[in-house]
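## tool: complex_structure
## caller: assistant
## args:
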Amino acid sequence: MSAAPFAVWAPLPASVTLVVREIGETEGQKIPMRQAEEGWWEPDAPLPGGGRGELEYGYLLDGSDTVLADPRSRRQVDGVHGWSRTYDAASFAWTDDTWNGRQLAGSIIYELHVGTFTPDGTLDAAIGRLDHLVRLGVDFVELMPVNAFNGDHNWGYDGVLWYAVHEAYGGPAAYQRFVDACHGVGLGVIQDVVYNHLGPSGNYLPQFGPYLNEGGSNTWGDSPNLDGEDSDEVRRYIIDNAVMWLRDYHVDGLRLDAVHALHDTRATHLLEELSIETEALSAFVGRPLPLIAESDLNDPRLITAREGGGYGLTGQWNDDFHHALYVSLTGDTTGYYADFESLAALGKVFENGFFHDGTRSTFRGRTHGHPIDTLRTPTWRLVVCSDNHDQIGNRAAGERLSDKLSPQQQALAALVTLLSPFTPMIFMGEEWGASTPWRFFTSHPEPELAEAVRSGRLEEFAQMEWDVANVPDPQDDSTYQSSKLDWDELQQPVHADLLAQTEALIKIRRTYPDFTDPRFDQGRATSDDEGGWLLVQRGSMTLAVNFSDAATGVPVERPLEPVYVIGEAEVDGDLVRLGAHSALVARTP
Amino acid sequence: MSAAPFAVWAPLPASVTLVVREIGETEGQKIPMRQAEEGWWEPDAPLPGGGRGELEYGYLLDGSDTVLADPRSRRQVDGVHGWSRTYDAASFAWTDDTWNGRQLAGSIIYELHVGTFTPDGTLDAAIGRLDHLVRLGVDFVELMPVNAFNGDHNWGYDGVLWYAVHEAYGGPAAYQRFVDACHGVGLGVIQDVVYNHLGPSGNYLPQFGPYLNEGGSNTWGDSPNLDGEDSDEVRRYIIDNAVMWLRDYHVDGLRLDAVHALHDTRATHLLEELSIETEALSAFVGRPLPLIAESDLNDPRLITAREGGGYGLTGQWNDDFHHALYVSLTGDTTGYYADFESLAALGKVFENGFFHDGTRSTFRGRTHGHPIDTLRTPTWRLVVCSDNHDQIGNRAAGERLSDKLSPQQQALAALVTLLSPFTPMIFMGEEWGASTPWRFFTSHPEPELAEAVRSGRLEEFAQMEWDVANVPDPQDDSTYQSSKLDWDELQQPVHADLLAQTEALIKIRRTYPDFTDPRFDQGRATSDDEGGWLLVQRGSMTLAVNFSDAATGVPVERPLEPVYVIGEAEVDGDLVRLGAHSALVARTP
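## result:
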């Protein structure tokens, strides 16, 4: 690539002109560009003020007079259709010199959407709530995508300018303040990044070059061109973006959205290349830089160390855990939940990581997955949750588990997740059983697009035979506003109680090493569908959970000393008696 | 094992009696012990004061009236032949809550012997010098063994009570203060531990149980019983000791002394078991816990991740690097240096890690080593140095490289080590070219043992046909005193200059990512024995080093911008002109 200021990769147009203006000006100065190597263009005339200082700029392709944003723009003050603005990331005065990063092993993640975490919906407002996260006891904040997207608010997965921090969140400077503040209170930051598609509006990349693999689209749009002609630069575009977050913004790890939607036939898969480059960066910055994939492939290759022939990602989300736990809690066996009907599914996940490890997936109409090498793979490579932005937001009305479950059942969900041997993740508000929904919301300014999103959403649910009357309009501002956390709920005893239980469970996790022990073979799970119970033993620790709404008895083979109880639990000789929706955490002396 | 207070593993004696006394008392109270499971004994009567508070204690075996120290003693106030003293490690008020540990990747290690680092020779005195290490820019302090050994001073490898911190260093409380202070200034602590033999005096373990594999001794004594009868508890003794440092004393990593001297035929080698247990602990404490082996096996299995079928140690010392560099600097090709005569040996190490990777070792009279999988193994797994306690101390008079090399040559040594892709290690004082020797010293109080050590040392060197008149008496106090660093040297320009160069080289390492890039295949080395030069290219960085005492010219194939010069260096077209003992660090734009 070219290192010249304002250089741009644009192998498609026959001519590229740079336009630059001072902040506040309306007219830009046109600077002709000359072709450099490998599709790059460089300014061919002096820049105003030598190109230093804050400037607005954009590109005119093939003599057009439409100013297009820089594909690597750091700021889009007027949105994704507007001019780009320079931002000098090196100018920030970091205060995190003594921060050595955080390893994924042993950690707990807190997933957070900037726009709805606080009433203000900004990164600076989020800083004001970090003390809550520290008290809760989590290690990483995982920010849902902050890249520039169309409109004011959005989940973030419709990003089109991956290098820019969404202006309504506060832009790149606020982002740096946020990361610095997190490090100051001992929290790592994981950034959710989307490399599998671009949003439906503001994506001008195809005019610059073959960024997209137009033959191979996925659910959300065209997937990136990772293995076609000119794909070296497209891969570089992705990897440089990852490096930007980790190096320039001091981010501690990345969550890679839906990697199963990446199409790459190369001998070195993009994910392995990303691992390699991230390992090199990690050695340079002296901090662990975990990469966590969202994957529905159930393919252990992703999380196997490169020394073991894998791609070398640090971890991946494990949907099987969610599905098995969700079915255990709710009894819902519709759609892809069907295979998880028996509590043995949750038990299998505890023992083997994946439920679908070569077994038949009814939903997919084929066998699915591959077994994890449980003797060598650490349990913490799997990130698990009882709810997350996708599970909640993709329900018709964006209702959380709290909408379906009693507080006591929510405590069961927290117990099974937080005392699992995996890496637990909490979705913001879940720790107190937030009653606010978390809905699918968009804010596309274009009426046609707004209507397309609105009707598309309805169609989707109509196909699933849901009552579409309950589906909120994604474009309605109240859909967004109603998704914001209501922090005043914490004043109510029921929410304060649930928060106290979540905090207690996190403390228990950190008190008894058996819970974080990464050896699969240290755990054994049994269950009984009729009795409605699951029994998990890890080392000297035991979890006995009654998911059913009737009292039950769990046979145990060793003496138990109660450590924590949800609902009613009693050790009676060789039996643990559990009330409805109750659980016991115990240790064997 | 038994969790009872004062329990002891002693499968050999037919009876065990505990003796306990308050501090200051001379007589102890005898407490009978009863056999518990698997060779463990537990007190069979109430303990004075309930066994709480600080107490002195020991064991009488088979009716003997000789009080033996606890094999797991935490303190030996009166030396290894005296009574044990209880120490409550949990009582320390740690201030390192926000410390997340340190990863080995990208780090620099500083090896330090507590007794000779400062005039006082204590851990508390060492705390007073941490600012020097922070300014220098290292990441880890590696403490030579601090376990209890016979006498007042010693290198530490003659330890006999592995759980006790040597009292003359300040004991366990001072140790905790030291680790806490290191964390406070951002330094990690690696503890050197010796599990391959026990020292010649104060080793009463064989009276308790079959700790030693008496059939299979190594250079230094009987090796531990890792695979014979009752070896489960011996392995537990070792692993629990590792856990003690990492958990109770907040240590950040271990250096495992001479692992090639461990004899273990089990399917799971002790080193793999140690990796597994350390990984579990790491997930519990949420900190990376690197394990670094000293190994002369050149066997990549040690440092291959468990997911790749290896033992899963984090790193190992790479003697080949030292030997190749030493020969390049000194021209000495005696003994095991013979194979490293050509500069191509150093080049091979840069490209492949091991020089002996299946090649013939003249010194060993056989082929030696196995190639590293350079496409998958990160370079930082190899710890390298130009001098260390062994290389210095095992020379007859304990002379450092500074004794043989000019300051400019010492700067070359620093450059090649600190800008290598491996994990550099500095031996205390090397950063300023300390002129003080670092000798082999002991302080055995027993005259016979003192004489044996003295004459053994002379014999050893006589066999190598050295002039034994130059070999200092290990037992002479002046041998110890003369080995202490002379910090006043830093006032002399020659030493201050060398320190400034070391600091500058560390800054260069941290400025250009190519130096820490862990990919072997990013590096290429060429050399010319006649011209006396080595050329290393890593990414966009180039090192050109002239080891010879004549000016030389190094042909280069790309444009170079000088970044750092030692001696005289000049880029002249396709040639780098180097003065005698000179070097150039350069980058290609």
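## assistant note: Chain B touches chain A at residues 97-103, 105-107, 139, 186, 276, 279-288, 304-310, 373, 376-378, 380, 510, 513, 516-519 (CB under 8 Å). The mean pLDDT of chain B is 95. Handing back to user.
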